[in-house]
């Protein structure tokens, strides 16, 4: 009986203690009142870079951080906590130039009048390569590379195609495993069955696909479940479409996986754009655009129906030369389906709004997950970025100055960068072609 009374007393005490603890934890908590406006007063600091702390002052925030969204332009910031009148947030990566800060709670939102001054911090390092152009497998320190085009899978494997230095091939580079290894290599033109240029990866399946430049129906896939052994695939065009490709300028330098509809897209030098089913290989021409050699192709993951293409100095009509084009895959033959987005007048350099920007032989292009495009500006020896809000900036290298130097965005030097790839974290890998090295650009 005595034990019963002790147990009852202990249970009552515990219930009382937990109730007091719960009540104490609610002291000072504030709820957002949806019937009253969000009040914004000031924020600090006024400038900074990615991962910096920012304090947003105002009122009617509520203290439940999970219900608060903060945006720098259109890029969402991480919200750490809120006291009700002060939000503690983290500046996001690459929000665009002079971002405005917006606070969203439920159906309500408010924007600070003053803008934030965002400063990107960048660092360039060398991943592999020693300046020698003959390909050689090995560790990152001992390997030799002469890559032109790059692509990444979701596991951090970097794929490189090359066609110079005496051999042709596709290689896998893995920083964590400290390895550079060939997936396919040919030492002579007689042995060469794959003439690879642009590469693409389906980041869900991990399958790597490479275009075969001069045979219109042929492309190759490398499946990680088969240890990336190359498999030849033949696109199945109708007889009429196939004949139109064969007798035209059939060279196809790129193939790109499109998550919008699950098809592969390739473009021939005569301007035809074809889509290919990745399983049945059924293919059809969906667009006829301008003539011209091509040096880049990519899908914008933020708008996966947009296929971007860079054309070279032989494009015809002339208004498409040395430009960045976009094709809307939702209606590829519609009015305005294919258009140039940057200013005409290549072989120059100008940052600013994309409609005013000029490049000099832009080569490979890739996007990060936020919709920022990175361009290997071959003739200007630098890496440019087209932000999701339409502003072109130089993020690494010195425009017009060729060289080799790691370091910050101003100190770093490139020599005719050709290929780019962007991983899930937003780090940019660069095939620094005339330096025969793979470089890495980390922007925060």
TrEMBL record:
Signal peptide location: 1-19
Repeat (NHL) residue spans along the chain: 414-438
A Pfam family hit: NHL
Record key words, sorted: Repeat, Signal
IPT/TIG domain sequence ranges: 40-118
SUPFAM superfamilies in UniProt: E set domains, NHL repeat
Classification via PANTHER family: NHL DOMAIN-CONTAINING PROTEIN, PTHR13833
Protein name: NHL repeat-containing protein
Organism: Parapedobacter composti
Species classification: Bacteria, Pseudomonadati, Bacteroidota, Sphingobacteriia, Sphingobacteriales
